[in-house]
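pls ignore typos typing on phone
1,3-dihydroxyacetonephosphate + seq
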Amino acid sequence: MPKRIALIAHDEKKDDLIQFARDYQSTLSRFDLIATGTTGKLINERTELEVTRMQSGPLGGDQQIGAEVAHDRLDGIIFLRDPLTAQPHEPDVSALLRVCDVHDIPISTNLATAIMVVTYLEADFD
Ligand SMILES: O=C(CO)COP(=O)(O)O
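k done
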């Protein structure tokens, strides 16, 4: 069964995430992918990858992904956060980071660790 990863990016980081998804397309294609709404739409449109879309982040998408973590249905999250812009749903963002810590699920919040997480999860295939 493929591992499952969530992809999320705040608006200022969406271009970076799309570029990452293109650069690591062959790796990411080995995973089952989910994403928040707008991020998922862009990945579906601009890469060869297929992701299952949740709600947009501000409308509850981060919480939906947090629920996947709580149900032990996610192996990792790439979440390129914008550290320079206040988000209306900041409590949801913090809750997602927290639930990942509770369940010991790797979550990367910048490109450097995004590469580490997907490389690690890929290497861990049995
Ligand atoms: O806001 C987000 C994460 O907190 C991302 O949501 P979208 O992918 O819908 O823009």
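Strands lie at 4-9, 32-35, 51-53, 76-80, 107-108. The CA atoms of residues 48 and 76 lie 20 Å apart. more later
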